[in-house]
Amino acid sequence: MRRRDFIKSVSTAVALTAVPNIYPAVSTKEKIKPPRLKPGDTLGLISPGSYISEDELKESKNNLEKLGYNVFFTEKILSRYGYLAGTDEERADEVNSMFANKKINGIVCTRGGYGCARILPLLNYELIKNNPKVLIGYSDITALLNGIYSKTGLVTFHGPVGISSFNEFSVTYFDEMLVHPFKDLILISAKEENEIDENKVITIVSGKAVGELVGGNLSLVNSLIGTKYDFNGEGKIIFLEEIGEEPYRIDRMLTQLIQSGKFDKAAGIAMGVFKDCGPKEKDPSFSKSFSLLEVLFDRLANLNIPVIYGLSFGHIKNKFTLPIGIKAELDTINQTITLLENSVI
So where are the chain's domains? Predict the structure, then answer.
């Protein structure tokens, strides 16, 4: 059977036989919502993971100023320590200082890369809890977002970084999430220009689920398993995205999540675009490799919870801003996420 036929037949079978499930939201800490952003607010730029160049700093500053914000950063933002943007202590101090600074209304990470997990033990969680602010980023920032939410209950945001393309789609959801929030906001994915299977929205298990959103980059979610910064998957809608990982590596990471029990009592799974995650043609075993979608169906189609792939988040131009800790409804039949409460106050 050809791959496309396999995917189509499995998708149809699952969609017809799955029973929609509605789960109650489960929260382990008192939820703290940060104040909403307003035009003219000051946003603090930080580089908690990999280092950035001066050009990338200018790009980040310009992107936020075009949206009507003032931008603040310190001289440490261009620090470099190997592949990191400064030592662990320097990067953690930047995070702590931005939360402590009363003139800063929100915090935007310039980029991801690697390094956020290293600074989690050095953050002042009591200070962060007492000075709630919007914190936004994605990719490696996943560790920072989930670590802070897990330790403080502060709602954090998986969304554009400073060097992202702030196009109309991304800005619209940024504003509707953080500036002009309203209940029952429906997130509808953009139609990607490249209509290969990996860019399409595909329902893997049909149904509806209600729960708090948690997650982020698949590799980083995996790296938090067994640490005190991990999230409890019970009653949660777990959202995942990835870039540059071959299907066997996606298989391995999903298998780890399954065997660690992360999905056992989850409400549903919402996946963004896994960019460049197909088998590599230079690999001698390329012709025999499972495709990305074959792996996703194989690992996730039998979990008996709603599962969808290809929503608008991840390493792509059109990005949702997704709030970690906010109650939402995942509808894999209509292929939407609906926020059931405001994410900011």
Answer: 3-28+183-339, 42-166
59 belongs to the catalytic site: no
Is residue 289 annotated as a catalytic residue, yes or no? no
Predicted local distance difference test score (pLDDT) of residue 29: 73
Give CA–CA dist 215/237, Å, rounded.
Answer: 8
Catalytic-role residue among 56, 198, 241, 329: 241
Report the distance separating Cα 67 and Cα 64, nearest Å.
5
Q: Does domain 42-166 have CATH number 3.40.50.10740?
A: yes
* Residue range 47-65, pLDDT digits in tens: 999 999 999 999 999 999 9
Selected catalytic residue, list 139, 164, 170, 219: 139
Catalytic residue, from 246, 315, 329, 343: name it. 315
Q: What CATH number does the domain located at 3-28+183-339 have?
A: 3.50.30.60
Clarify whether 180 is annotated catalytic. no
